[in-house]
Amino acid sequence: MNELLTTIEIDVPFPKPPEVLSEEQKHLHVANIKQLLVQHNAVLIAHYYTDPEIQALAEETGGFVGDSLEMAKFGAKHPADTIIIAGVKFMGETAKILSPEKRILMPTLEATCSLDLGCPIEPFSAFCDQHPDREVVVYANTSAAVKARADWVVTSSIAVDVLEHLAEQGKKIIWGPDKHLGRYIQQKTGADMLLWQGACIVHDEFKYQGLQNAIKMYPKAAVLVHPESPEKVVALADFVGSTSQLIKAANELPHKQMIVATDKGIFYKMQQKAPDKELIIAPTAGEGATCRSCAHCPWMKMNALQVLSEVFDGDDKEIFVDPHLAEKAMIPLQKMVNFASDIQASVNSNI
Length: 351
Ligand code: SF4
Prior knowledge:
Helix content is 42%, strand content 14%. The protein has 351 residues and is an alpha/beta fold. The relative contact order is 0.16. The strands form three sheets. The protein has a four-stranded parallel β-sheet with strand order 2-1-3-4, sandwiched between helices. The chain has a four-stranded parallel β-sheet with strand order 6-5-7-8. Strands 10-9-11-12 form a four-stranded parallel β-sheet, with helices on one face. Helix 3 packs parallel to helix 4 and helix 8 crosses helix 9. Helix 2 (52-60) links the parallel strand 1 (42-47) and strand 2 (64-66). It has helices at residues 23-39, 52-60, 68-77, 89-98, 114-117, 121-130, 144-149, 159-168, 179-189, 208-217, 231-234, 243-252, 267-273, 305-308, 323-349; strands at 42-47, 64-66, 82-86, 103-105, 135-139, 152-154, 172-176, 192-195, 222-225, 239-240, 257-261, 278-281. The structure holds iron/sulfur cluster. Iron/sulfur cluster is lined by residues 49, 88, 113-115, 141, 200-202, 263, 297, 299-300.
């Protein structure tokens, strides 16, 4: 069974893109941020979808670039007192939940996510209450309150494994918030899932027709697709996977060209890992497309150098999570971390 819920309308205007900086301005900001990080014993951790200069700065200063869970795990292990999360708000919250004793700052707390916005705690919790026989599994792209309501939190890299495990146990599932990822997992695992109808505004705009045209134009290219994309787009993929899995695939697949359907911020790390490959962004334009995101998340883009330069100014950049909520959210997060460790241990024992 795979029932659908009604869509929650998101009525939030997109943020204005930050001002474009000259090379000289960029150099000045980079030098300033490097100095501030040392001065405040802070480490910069960036998501794959931030702009290339932010990812480069994280790497140059001993920080980290990764997906949301890898970011939080790196922060928890790092000795710095202060962690700067360049990403969107739920990532800062996850870092705070895993490192409650540390100060978590973000360049702007206004950087949000359409999946988080599309899954407010009250209606989601009410829906869960109507189905007490179902395990609640939520994607990492949710608020701390939604995580606290869940039995499991998963990232896209481990979602299929967790749902397979639950399906084998005969569990029935409520899945939220991404409808495309939920449908993909449901098809892969055969799990009995009720799907919340959220969507990522970036992946939702990759178009079947446009991708087909790109495939005609580059017939030897491999097509790499993130499972937050629509079903017909996923159906055209040679490889479907999370951000980290797509980067690995770009390196390992024999093709010289890759058409990539995910946020183009990923090209920084993908090109680094696969320097001899030509990366082509999957088209977002096509019949019915609005191209509101043009393959780059407007909220990720808010993490600009000039905003990062001011991260230690004022007191409105710090992430706080209610300790009671954090304690509850930690339970499903920890389940995922343990599940991932068990998988890794079983892989190692089979080597
Ligand atoms: S790219 Fe999509 S899923 Fe990621 S933060 Fe932006 S809106 Fe959310």
